[in-house]
Amino acid sequence: MPIDPTLPYDDTNIFARILRAEIPCRKVYEDDHALAFHDINPQAPVHILVIPKGAYVSWDDFSAKASDAEIAGFIRAVGHVAREAGVAATGYRLMANMGGHGHQEVAHLHVHIFGGRQFREMIPREAVSS
Ligand code: AMP
User: Fold this and answer.
1) Mind listing the domains of the chain with CATH numbers?
2) Is 110 one of the catalytic residues?
3) What pLDDT does 130 receive?
4) CA dist., res. 35 & res. 28, Å (int)
5) pLDDT tens track for 101-129
6) Ligand 1, residues 27, 40, 48, 111: which to mutate, most atoms within 8 A of Cβ?
7) Which of 1, 22, 39 to mutate to test the pocket of ligand 1 (most atoms within 8 A of CB)?
């Protein structure tokens, strides 16, 4: 069920609980600004989620309110994690679902890194006409 991105940040969301180490994750990277871990339901040989440490609901929230240092740190972390995962040479796909139409399910900003196989079109073509 997609989230309502207009609601304030709710620190009971699953990624907030991972950040507080209340529930485990398969961590691949952590620094001052970001945490990266394997998606629990991988859609590709490499499927890693990168989340900012700050309390941001979505890409919209983060891009509007995060500091320059948080934004730079987060973007650098995404690139670093992809390189460390070994997909920079073969290519990878980034995805940040936002709100209802974006089908965002967890109300803490996360960027998906998908890699390790060939991807085709970005989204199903029938979506263009609907
Ligand atoms: P999104 O639709 O972009 O909000 O995707 C949420 C993603 O979080 C999905 O790919 C889930 O498989 C993933 N996910 C949900 N709970 C966990 C968890 N506890 N650990 C790792 N990934 C999770």
Assistant:
1) 14-117 (3.30.428.10)
2) yes
3) 52
4) 8
5) 999 999 999 999 999 999 998 877 776 66
6) 40
7) 39
- Write a three-state SS string for the chain: CCCCCCCCCCCCCHHHHHHCCCCCCCEEEECCCEEEEECCCCCCCEEEEEEECCCCCCHHHHHHHCCHHHHHHHHHHHHHHHHHCCCCCCCEEEECCCCCCCCCCCCCCCEEEEECCCCCCCCCCHHHHC
For the full predicted model, state whether its pTM sits above 0.90.
Answer: yes
What is the per-residue pLDDT for 128? Answer: 64
Which residue, chain included where needed, has tokens 């263009």? 128
